[in-house]
């Protein structure tokens, strides 16, 4: 099989209003909510860089200036830390200085994830690219995105990430019908996709999570995808079309993920991420784990 070019660019949609976290997100982008000592979006950007995607485009909206400021240089703060000899904090903020790697485009209207991805067309061009949803944090020890890039380079088309969820939760996700792929226990071929089905209508309990590696042909499909559920242009609808497309741009495979994923767009998922990352933190972890044991024993 002819190998396709490997994805080199990452797109992170981050134009949402974060209404589930109000009032905390009234003036602060939800992507900037801290998970221990780093904003949530920094974990996602770092995942892209660790997966050899050096070119990152963030799709922003109104009141998202803090995102751009975070990844920019802050010479005055650096100067203060240098004078104090605070090398640890200086190194930490310089880790976030990705001004040369980061690009931004504004989504003028919140018309859905499919529309947000379409805003990346000019930047991405005619090559495969990854989409990472800022709400989903994948633990750094789990190489989901790198695996997806490898699968896409081998099989072409597009690749999504699936994860088993309880049957009572399927109505909160896009859900896939799949066929097995011989010789790969973590890869399946997607035959159909349904956006937020009723429990009795779901084709499986394999839910789409926030990682995609897409063929650039998805842009043409999105151009002709009408608004779907919620009156928005759904990326799931475009992927459903591609799953039935026999052309070079078509075909959808999936990597079934069995690692650690945190939905930080949900309050409980966000708190779980904070607790787990704090428990693993090199400076805080030991004290955090001791406190958790003490707290658990109170009840």
UniProtKB/TrEMBL annotation:
One of its GO terms (molecular function) is UTP:glucose-1-phosphate uridylyltransferase activity. Keywords: Nucleotidyltransferase, Transferase. Residues 9-274 form the Nucleotidyl transferase domain. Its EC number is 2.7.7.9. It comes from the Bacteria. Belongs to the UDPGP type 2 family. This is UTP--glucose-1-phosphate uridylyltransferase. One of its GO terms (biological process) is UDP-alpha-D-glucose metabolic process. Pfam families: NTP_transferase. It catalyses: alpha-D-glucose 1-phosphate + UTP + H(+) = UDP-alpha-D-glucose + diphosphate. It comes from Micrococcus cohnii.
């Amino acid at each position: 099989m002819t190998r396709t070019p490997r994805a080199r660019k990452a797109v992170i949609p981050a134009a949402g209003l974060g209404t589930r976290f109000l009032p905390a997100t009234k003036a602060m982008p939800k992507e900037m909510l801290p998970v221990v000592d780093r904003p949530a979006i920094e974990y996602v950007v770092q995942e892209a860089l660790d997966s050899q995607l050096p070119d990152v485009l963030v799709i922003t909206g109104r009141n998202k200036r803090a995102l751009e400021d975070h990844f920019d240089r802050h010479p005055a703060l650096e100067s203060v830390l240098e004078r104090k000899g605070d090398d640890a904090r200086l190194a930490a903020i310089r880790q976030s200085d990705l001004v040369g790697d980061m690009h931004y485009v504004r989504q003028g209207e919140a018309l859905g994830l499919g529309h947000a991805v379409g805003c990346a067309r000019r930047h991405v061009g005619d090559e495969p690219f990854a989409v990472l949803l800022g709400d989903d944090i994948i633990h750094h020890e789990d190489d989901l995105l790198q695996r997806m890039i490898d699968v896409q380079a081998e099989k072409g088309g597009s690749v999504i990430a699936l994860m088993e969820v309880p049957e009572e939760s399927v109505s909160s996700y896009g859900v896939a019908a799949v066929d097995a792929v011989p010789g790969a226990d973590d890869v399946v071929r997607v035959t159909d996709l349904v956006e937020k089905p009723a429990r009795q209508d779901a084709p499986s309990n394999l839910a789409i999570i926030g990682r995609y590696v897409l063929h650039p042909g998805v842009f043409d499909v999105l151009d002709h995808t009408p608004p779907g559920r919620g009156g928005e242009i759904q990326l799931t609808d475009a992927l459903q079309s591609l799953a039935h497309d026999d052309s070079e741009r078509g075909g959808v495979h999936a990597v079934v993920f069995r690692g650690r994923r945190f939905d930080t767009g949900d309050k409980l998922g966000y708190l779980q991420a904070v607790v787990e990352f704090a428990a693993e933190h090199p400076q805080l972890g030991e004290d955090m784990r001791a406190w958790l044991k003490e707290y658990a024993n109170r009840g």
